[in-house]
Write a structure and sequence with these properties.
There is one protein chain. This protein has four helices and seven strands; from the N terminus they run βααβββαβαββ. It is an alpha+beta fold and 154 residues long. The chain has a single domain, classed as Gcn5-related N-acetyltransferase (GNAT) (Aminopeptidase, 3-Layer(aba) Sandwich), CATH 3.40.630. The chain binds coenzyme A. The site of coenzyme A has 19 residues, from strand 4, helix 3 and helix 4. Coenzyme A binds next to strand 4, helix 3 and helix 4.
Amino acid sequence: MSANLLEHINYTDAKLSDLDKIFKLELNSYDHPWTIGILRDCLVNHYDFYKAEYNNNLIGYIISKISIYETHILNLTVSEDYRQKGIATDLLEMIFAKCYIMNSLNIFLETRVDNTPAIKLYEKHNFRRISIRKNYYQTSDGKQDAIIFKKILS
Ligand SMILES: CC(C)(COP(=O)(O)OP(=O)(O)OC[C@H]1O[C@@H](n2cnc3c(N)ncnc32)[C@H](O)[C@@H]1OP(=O)(O)O)[C@@H](O)C(=O)NCCC(=O)NCCS
């Protein structure tokens, strides 16, 4: 892996032809992954869906729905071997840039209450906790709360 990895990563729109690779990374990244059908729907319905590639390997993606008044970030995933190198940050910044263009200044997302890497990531990017959604996520033995985050772009 290159020392200046970030210079060699390509960030582009995800396409339907990427679906199998995206689903594989989804399966490798979550105990309760999205189905391939949900991922396909996001591609077919032209969600704001970007991928990160290194040496033609898919190593991350972000799925977002950017609307005029508000934006929802629905999925952000980076391959385990490539974490803590700034890739999620780059993907988030792609969404922020498009939000500015579309004047969509309120961004929402949610994460599991025990997902420390994600919580730290979002707090670093000035997302603020606005509420808790009780029993929102499935776990292996029950349900788990979600933290709802909001960022106001200025
Ligand atoms: C959460 C996730 C997307 C972060 O991706 P990443 O590319 O590693 O994130 P970045 O390198 O851009 O990290 C930026 C900041 O996030 C925080 N962060 C990221 N990983 C962290 C970790 N393991 N522990 C603590 N803080 C972490 C840090 O503040 C970091 O800044 P720093 O490097 O200056 O300390 C990645 O861990 C992942 O894909 N996890 C599995 C899927 C998931 O949980 N997605 C989020 C669903 S809501």
